[in-house]
Amino acid sequence: MPEETAVYTHGHHESVLRSHRWRTAANSAAYLIGELRPGQAVLDVGCGPGTITADIAALVAPGRVTAVDTSRDVLARAAETAGERGARNVEFAVADVHSLDFPDDSFDVVHAHQVLQHVGDPVRALREMRRVCRPGGVVAARDSDYAAMTWYPEVPGMRKWLDLYGRVARANGGEPDAGRRLLSWARQAGFTGITPTAAAWCFATPQDRAWWSGLWADRTTASGYAALAVDGGHASAAQLSAIADAWRAWGEGPDAWFMVPHGEVLCRV
Question: Which of 38, 81, 223, 258 could cross-link to 203 by cystine, CB 3.0-4.6 Å?
Answer without folding.
Answer: 258
